[in-house]
TrEMBL record:
CDD domains: GGDEF. One of its GO terms (molecular function) is diguanylate cyclase activity. Its cofactor is Mg(2+). It comes from Thiomicrorhabdus sediminis. Residues 82-135 form the PAC domain. InterPro entries: Diguanylate_Cyclase (IPR050469), GGDEF_dom (IPR000160), Nucleotide_cyclase (IPR029787), PAC (IPR001610), PAS (IPR000014), PAS-assoc_C (IPR000700), PAS-like_dom_sf (IPR035965), PAS_fold_3 (IPR013655). Residues 206-333 form the GGDEF domain. Its EC number is 2.7.7.65. SMART domains: GGDEF, PAC. This is diguanylate cyclase. It is an enzyme of class 2 (transferase).
Length: 333
């Protein structure tokens, strides 16, 4: 059979089978997924970005750490098998139990993974049946099967209260990680996100950059136009920046007039270009009484094996240097 025919046949198979087959190219970060993967979870075929974020974002939060640990153990050679059961989020918001099994098919000269392929299998019915059986066994052991219906009623009630509680916890979590004035992330949100993204950059050997900016002569704006105008500037600037960023980027207010952006999958070069674009866009912002502002920027890319604190203090230093160079400029390294 010619290779064209083999490809054609393979594509037809991938289109038919119900398992979700995935293929991760670590060189480019590209992940292709078969139509079965989308159908299994109820999403439109091809409706997600073809990167690892899509996978990580559908994993149940309670399973996430376990899955990452297993993945890292396999890719770093600590374990010789990648096979794990966990829950993935469906289009309707519910979770589906799947079995994920994969194999490394190619490595770089230094041993790091360059390509890995795998398949997600729907095992939801099996897990639910097992759980049901466990529950019934437990009831039988207690000689209390007649109480099953009563318990089921109680369970439904509890489930409802749990959902309400979960919603309240989510609301509190959002409040505790949001800056009250500008509605972007606060310092806590920044610290959590930075730690997660550094771990992710190390795990996948992907680039990670950060931009920090500080409004120039902000004290003068407050002194001359009033604190309320100062607040308006902070809100307007944060809103503009947030609108420009991608879904997986993070923006947080670090200090009074200082904002920081965490940009996964972004090189220093790309972050530098973005900073220059922001610098120009900021000069085009007009606030009350025709007020305009400028900002000083620091840009940096995470260096393999460095400490998160060193990554952050480097960028803080660059903002300081931008101020020293006369403000309204970008310092990158
Ligand atoms: N309106 C308003 N002002 C704030 C807020 N938080 C901090 N500030 C003010 O931000 C100003 C920061 O001033 P400085 O740190 O001296 O910096 P700057 O005037 O911007 O000067 P350079 O950074 O050197 O260009 C102070 O006057 C703070 O009172 C806030 O939430 N609202």
């Amino acid at each position: 059979m010619s290779s064209k025919m083999v490809n054609h046949t393979l594509n037809a198979i991938l289109d038919i089978i119900r398992e979700g087959v995935w293929d991760w190219d670590a060189k480019t970060g590209h992940v292709s997924r078969s139509p079965g993967w989308y159908r299994m979870l109820g999403y439109d075929v091809g409706s997600f970005a073809e990167d690892v974020f899509t996978w990580e974002n559908v994993i149940h939060p309670d399973d996430y750490a376990r899955v990452m640990e297993h993945f890292e153990a396999y890719t770093t050679g600590k374990s010789d098998l990648y096979k794990i059961e966990y829950r993935c989020k469906k289009a309707d918001g519910d979770y589906l139990w799947i079995e994920d099994a994969a194999k490394i098919v190619d490595r770089f000269a230094d041993g790091q993974v360059s390509r890995m392929i795998g398949a997600h299998l729907n095992i939801d019915d099996r897990i639910r049946a097992e759980n049901d059986l466990k529950k019934k066994n437990q009831l039988l052991k207690q000689g209390n099967l007649s109480l099953e219906y009563l318990l089921e009623d109680k369970n439904a009630e509890l489930e409802f209260s749990n959902k309400q509680l979960e919603y309240k916890i989510k609301q509190i979590e959002t409040l505790s990680t949001t800056d009250a004035l500008t509605k972007v992330g606060n310092r806590r949100n920044f610290e959590i996100t930075l730690n997660n993204e550094v771990a992710r950059a190390k795990r996948y050997h992907h680039p990670l950059s950060m931009i920090m900016l500080d409004i120039d002569f902000f004290k003068k704006i407050n002194d001359e136009h009033g604190h309320q105008t100062g607040d308006e500037v902070l809100i307007g600037l944060a809103g503009m920046l947030k609108e420009q960023l991608r879904e997986n980027d993070c923006i947080a207010r670090w200090g009074g007039e200082e904002f920081v952006m965490i940009l996964p999958e972004t090189t220093l070069y790309q972050a530098h270009i973005l900073s220059e674009r922001f610098r120009e866009m900021i000069s085009g912002l007009h606030f009350s009484k025709g007020l305009t502002i400028t900002c000083s920027f620091g840009v940096s890319e995470f260096e393999k094996d460095e400490e998160t604190d060193d990554f952050f203090s480097r960028i803080d230093r660059f903002v300081y240097q931008a101020k020293e160079r006369g403000r309204n400029c970008v310092v990158a390294a």
